[in-house]
Every structure is written in structure tokens, then in C-alpha cells.
Amino acid sequence: MTQKKPTSRRQFLGQTAAIASASLVPFGALSSRVSAQSPNERPRFALIGVGGNGTRTAPVGQQFADLVALCDVDAKHLAHGNGLLCDGKADLYGDYREVLAQDDIDIVQISAPDHWHTKILIEAMLAGKDAYCEKPLTLTIDEGKLIRKVQKQTGRVVQVGTQQRSSMNFFNKALAVIADGRLGKLYKITVGIDAGGWSPEISVADVPEGLDWDRWLGPTPVMPFRYLQDPKKDTDRNYTNGHTHFRWWYEHSGGKLTDWGAHHIDIAMLGIAAAGQNNDPVSVGGSSRHDVEFKDGVPMQDNRYNTAREFDLIVDFADRDVQINIRHDVDNGILFEGERGRIFVNRGKLVGKPIEDVATKPLPKDAIAKVYRDMPIMGNDRDAHWANFTHSIKHRTLPISDVHSHMKMLNVCHLAGISCRLDRTIHWDQTTEQITGDELAASMMSRPYREGYEIEM
């Protein structure tokens, strides 16, 4: 294990404070180490969070930058990732702050669990790093406001890992068809994101060797580690409140609504905009089901998955002609219905008569480029998404999945989660970015950070 000399907490805080005080300049005004490099010098990046999604996305990043450091609170993840990704040659860290203190690291990829995203990302931007951060970007609505503020102040480039925005074969082609008027005005969009996770009661268990459970919990409340292996399965299927299954606990995530919702609701809202309609949300409500009892939005049972299992929710917009219906019980994907036709798109197909008609009536040559903000199209899906990120770093521009447009969509996901937890319609003012007429719901726009894990500004 290669380790660099630790930077003291005092030194690190001094560095971030200096960067913060010097960074109140308009977006795009800052120069960067990456943009100043010669064409033959590749940027260096660190992977923070070396679990499943981290090891899936980092190899794509390695096409564009050199992966030189890994950080995780689980020693087993570090050892596995080092062998898999770096031939055992990476610098290894258990504390992400030591990564941010290294001035020879240009980029960080943040693939830690959802509840860590905001804290690490903000401190990375203040430390002068550009960042690729997995979705969902935040755990709460107010975290998104802070991220957007810091991004504008620092001018750092942040690409959110909603790689469907860089899908040329399916999602961008669907948006191009909509933008070309082939569906006419949209009136209904059905978003299928499947049911949420289920678990039996999960008992308290010993923390696995090598896992720093307190640091894994980080900003979220203290709770015991829980683990139960499914006795009906020969494989290592398990139920836990830790790795992978954190997304089924409101303490750490938003369930299916922020997991798959962050992908498909994103495309649905881009579709409304592509049709020339107003996609400012005004309310979210409907029906849902949890496997545990709730009181005032708080789960009353602590030993089972507690995010919404089922949901049938309606999102209304400032353009009252169109609605999004978020469901668990339809095909995974997005069904766009308009005055002139309908199309269905997911990661495996794009179908519908307006798509068939493209064969005889082709889209304009620049149709897909326009919905991709006229940025270079360099590949498809994950490859194109990382390429777009590095292009944006070089030119100091907003990437295709910037934090500002991402948070407008993600706020809908968060509002949906609050609606499910309180079992009522939530009303939203897009201008002030506030929940209106519901004091309890409005209080759920933020959460306190555990002492010792506050964001270091």
C-alpha cells in the first residue's frame, strides 16, 4: 500500500479557507491546472468511493485521465479496487480530505454513498478540484442550493453521473424527435422506475473487518450496522443498511425515487423543455406504500428497509397541459404522449410510430446536436459523458449534466419522497425554491449533519 505523507487537519482547513476566500469570481473566470496543461499531459484523478458503481465508471474515466489515487472507508474495497483498476500502484486513503489536500490531483470522481455526495463535492470544489459526482447529487433540497452556490463561486466543473444525458442512440434521439415537433404538444409522460427494495427484519451484526462504520455513516445519525444473509439463496445476496442497500433507507438516500428517478425523471423534464413547454414543477402528490409505519414523515421501525415500495404520483407543472406520472408498476422507461403521437424510450429501445417515421422523414442533421447543447458528441453513454466532462474542463464551460439543471429535476424527486413520507400533496414555488403551505414538509428540505461531520467551508 503506497501512502503519501498525511496533511494535518489544520493545514487542510487553512488551504480550503484560502481557496474559498479567493474564489468569489464569475463562472469561467478561473484558470485551471488542467486547462493549462499541454495536449500531451493527461490530468490526474482520484476515485472516492471504490464500491460497485465506482469500479464501473472509473475505467471509463481512465480513457481520459490517469487514475492515481483511491479512497474508501472499507479496506477491502481499497485492496480490490487497487488491483482491478491500478495494478496495485495507486495511492490509498481512508479519509477523502487527504485526497483533496493533494495539489497534484486535478479531478475527483465521487462514488461514495448518496449521503456523502454533498459534503465531499463542496469541499472538493473549495479545494480547487473539478468533479464527476454520481447521482443523486444530494440527500436534500437545501443541499442542492448550497452546491449550486459554491459551484458559481469557485467556477469548478462538475459533471453529474446521469449518463443518459449522453445517450445518442436512445435518449437524445428521443429528445430530438420531440424537439422537432413530431409529437406536438406533450400532455402526459409516464415514468416507470420499478418498485423499491424489500427486506425482512434485519438484525444487528458485527461490523465487517476493515470497514470504518462510523466514517461510513458520516453526516447521518448513528445507527448499528445491520446484516442478514438470505437463507434461501446460495449466492451472497444480503440485506443490510450498509454497502449497496443503503439506497433503501431514508437516512442515506431517497429510495427508488432518487435512484432511478434521477435518471428517468430527468429525461422526462428535458422532454417537456424540448417540446417548448414550461417544466417548472408546482406540485407532487398521489399514492404510495411503505413497509414500515410513519409518523410525521419519520419511519417508526429501524430494522427494515423504509423507502417507498410502491407509488403512483402525479407531478404538475406551470404548463398545466402536461403531467408526469411516476409509477412502480409499468415498464422501466419513459412513455411520452403528445397530440401527434407517442414514443417509449429506455436503455434498451426507442419505439413508436414517430420513430418509425424517421426512416422516411429524417430528422435534421443537427437535431441531436442541438439537444446536446451543440457540444461535441464524442461517443455514447458513459464514454461520451466522461468525454463531455473533460471537454468542459478544458474549455471551462458547463457540462451536459451540470448541477443547476440536475437540481431542478432532482428537487422533483425529493418532493416526491416527501409526498410519500407524509402521504399528501406537496406544493412548490419554483421562483423561491420553497415548499409552500406546509410547515412540516418545508422542514424536510434540509437535515442536520452529525457533529464532527459538518461541511467544512
Structure description:
This protein is about 30% helix and about 20% strand. By secondary structure, it is of the alpha/beta class. The chain has a domain at about 10-165: NAD(P)-binding Rossmann-like Domain (Rossmann fold, 3-Layer(aba) Sandwich), CATH 3.40.50. It has a nine-stranded mixed sheet. Strands 3-2-1-4-5-6 form a six-stranded parallel sheet, sandwiched between helices. Residues about 1-40 have low confidence and may be disordered. Keywords: Oxidoreductase.
How many individual β-strands?
19
Task: Give the CATH level 1 class of one domain.
Answer: Alpha Beta
Task: Return the CATH topology of one domain.
Answer: Rossmann fold
In the CATH hierarchy, the architecture of one domain is 3-Layer(aba) Sandwich
Content-based structural category: alpha/beta
Radius of gyration: 22 Å
**What's the CATH H-level superfamily name of one domain?**
NAD(P)-binding Rossmann-like Domain
Question: How much β-strand is present in the residues?
Answer: 15-25%
| Stretches with pLDDT under 50, minimum 5 residues | 1-39
Largest sheet: 9 strands, mixed
Helix % is 25-40%
Through-space gap between termini: 31 Å
